[in-house]
């Protein structure tokens, strides 16, 4: 069952009913100000940090779903309705929601009134703009009242949720019922809670006309025991011109409108963030300097200025997504590669895992591991921003090479509540940096001085950070010469050191200290893959002695995996704190895990020995389902203290045998390593949203973006997805399809073209911007083989890498297969 359709020309997904299986959302904002917008007008906004600088409230875990947003109410005599259906849920006609790239358009009709609410965050400014277009499509005059409504958050979203004894006495607002800004009359509400504390910031809610009334007290507008579904003020057709003092401040304007038959009017509503630029951050306690707000409002106080901002936003995305464009027979593939997958990669660049409809933005910040992996999906789009992101991540590293697992986006400091100890983290820094170096050729980044633990007095070149990342794993090995897992590796729920039959016992390791000895075969695969990339970096940097030492360590790890990490038909997952096997045929449950199968084969381990093919065959036989590849089998039927959180989930959900979409692309890439073309594409399609659109009633999450997980075959809701948008699935699926299946990927020497195409793809063209050149690539797949040679600008070259030449700006490449 479908609830909408793709509009590829306009790069939009068009939702045709407000009652989608779950709220289907969009992200507005590309820089510092962000809004989450659902198909029914729900959501919230914040400046830089969803925890510390939240402007509007949102209620998670609430009923009805998607409670609180930036709402427009229309009162037409006794009928009260919203263009997006929520929160009044009055039935509407001709409903559509068009989620585009950085904007959302919600439109519906009721009783001969057509209302369209278009929302965006403009490039270069810290605000959300909502343009309301309202038209009388009937034959008689309409007398309407239109209300805006937002509920202000008291900035710190955690404190806002729990410190009621204080917060119910701090809310402050200021209102200008009518002001002239430029040539336009406007009305403005200023939310200044915290300004009294000299925190230098405030929010403004404004409308591009002189309003007929306003409210800033939630109790006045809603009613003491009222509901946003039927606010007291709207029901009574009035405004109380209330001034919030303590309690809960809101922003609402009332506009009384008369519409002749066929007449249309437009209004722009603004919610923005502002702060004083002066050293004098206050004139006196509680009185704000409005000049920054006035400057913002003047830029967007007419519908024409809104339209200019929307055009600029569309141009921004058109230019950005021109870096990688594919054209082939499979239009679902094209829309994912060209539009939605890259768009989602940009959202993960902005958000990491911090703010969604599943992540409240109040706990997790930017993930060390997460952000390094996300970089794989956006480095070709915004290399300058990727460079800064690498430096920010590296600055949270400790001097021994380990790192904070998360850091806050506002302060860029490590999250001490979570701390460190996830032993895969250091190697991801090498992965992200190598991707940047291949994409840009900018080796100057290795000389950039970067702090340790954000202490600039301890700054060292980024190359030293990479060295310590590699050496951390090298010096933290267990009894089987495999990497110590620490608190966990990529699978945060596999906590193998949380229990021992001898509490308090110390375990000897090959590292500098004694401690828990649980080992990870997955990290071993990472060590081989990214250790080789680090060796390549050393080679280019002229560090021959270090390169040789690194390759020797990598060879030792390769042998250790074959010696102690192979279980006969697949790779082991780990050894626990008692050196018992995890992910082995010897286990009752959890006999095989997906992670080491994908990553070890990606690293080339076992390919020449014939083991890689066996591992992939085991994945297909045991882990595969019609909805994707499960993370493990059989599911854990009871809780295992020695394994930690992994067995705390019911069978089929999340890490306990769910289809964890993030690592399905590892299998797709691994299949290209062993040259199984059709299988690689099959695993890609199974979790790809565009191919799941027709089963949206089962899948439930948005059919235009990836989700973190899908319930596995052991679950009651097999095939149901959760945790959409903010997931490493976005970057890894784009990596698998663009670099390995379609086969165009950056390398240190130039642009490598090595497609591994399924039989269903006969011909394709790819436009790829690489460094400062454009590559127009034509591939014919009639023979279904791998690349034999390339014709570049009329001349044949051997191999499958087009060497980069800074003097050549256009490369026309024909691939001979």
Question: Which descriptors apply to this entry?
Answer:
Beta-galactosidase, Chain A, domain 5; about 800 residues; single chain; 42 strands; Maltose phosphorylase, domain 3; 20 helices; alpha+beta
Secondary-structure topology with pairs:
Layout: E1 4-7, E2 12-15, E3 25-28, E4 33-38, E5 43-47, E6 54-56, E7 71-76, E8 79-81, E9 93-99, E10 103-110, E11 113-120, E12 127-136, E13 142-155, H1 157-162, H2 164-167, E14 173-181, E15 184-191, E16 201-207, E17 213-217, H3 218-222, H4 232-236, E18 249-259, E19 264-275, H5 291-299, H6 303-320, E20 324-328, H7 331-351, E21 366-367, H8 368-378, H9 383-394, E22 406-407, H10 425-440, E23 449-452, E24 455-461, H11 462-474, E25 519-520, H12 521-540, H13 544-564, E26 574-575, E27 581-582, E28 592-593, H14 594-602, H15 611-623, E29 624-625, E30 628-629, E31 632-633, E32 659-660, H16 664-673, H17 677-686, H18 689-692, H19 696-699, E33 707-710, E34 721-724, H20 729-741, E35 744-746, E36 750-753, E37 763-770, E38 773-780, E39 789-792, E40 795-798, E41 801-803, E42 810-816
Parallel strand pairs: 38-42
Antiparallel strand pairs: 1-2, 2-9, 3-4, 4-5, 6-13, 7-8, 7-13, 9-10, 10-11, 11-12, 12-19, 13-18, 14-15, 15-16, 16-19, 17-18, 20-37, 21-22, 23-24, 25-26, 26-27, 28-31, 29-30, 32-33, 33-34, 35-36, 36-41, 37-38, 39-40, 39-42
Domain Glycosyl hydrolase 94 supersandwich: 11-302
Protein name: Glycoside Hydrolase Family 94 candidate b-glycan phosphorylase
Keywords: Glycosyltransferase, Hydrolase, Plasmid, Transferase
